Amino acid sequence: xxxxxxxxxxxxxxxxxxxxxxxxxxxxxxxxxxxxxxxxxxxxxxxxxxxxxxxxxxxxxxxxxxxxxxxxxxxxxxxxxxxxxxxxxxxxxxxxxxxxxxxxxxxxxxxxx
Amino acid sequence: xxxxxxxxxxxxxxxxxxxxxxxxxxxxxxxxxxxxxxxxxxxxxxxxxxxxxxxxxxxxxxxxxxxxxxxxxxxxxxxxxxxxxxxxxxxxxxxxxxxxxxxxxxxxxxxx
Lengths: 113, 112
Prior knowledge:
The complex is a heterodimer of chains A (113) and B (112). By secondary structure, chain A is mostly beta strands. Chain A has strands at residues 4-7, 10-13, 19-25, 31-37, 43-51, 54-57, 64-66, 76-78, 87-94, 103-104, 108-112. In chain A, β5 and β6 form a beta hairpin. Chain B has 112 residues and is mostly beta strands.
């Protein structure tokens, strides 16, 4: 069965360190998204990609970067982790078209001390 | 700034009762409206994607309606069960852009 996975599921890191969160999907979807979810907010879009070599900034992209070298993977990098980046991070993918539902990974809980 | 509002923020409903809640979104540049169910400790899962004004979708005891001219969608749950306890998210898709703008959700708690 097709799926979308994230790793690690939990991560504790220190301020200033570089952190990479992995996202891998076997749906063969072109579109991939990274969100963060914080208390009192809905899902906020960090970065997204419409295909290989395509990346775009979302609403809250400062301090984050992504790269898309193949269809399956969209790793999210926190260049220099800050305590404000403590959050739960969700990766999602979808087929082409805004009418296609998004499929979500299980989430990564990141704590920055 | 585009905004998607969901109301109420939270809702306590007795098991067996029916309930509904609202998603309000911009009425211009509409492309699609999504509803997702998000259970605690799980990931959001799609319930419905609606694209046409007047659309009605149904899945079991859950249904949704869409009014794109006035910018709202209702989600209805008939005969609430404990397994319906979750946060219900709606998301607005503008034009054919694949991005979604998400509401903050309605947290539904079913009391036995």
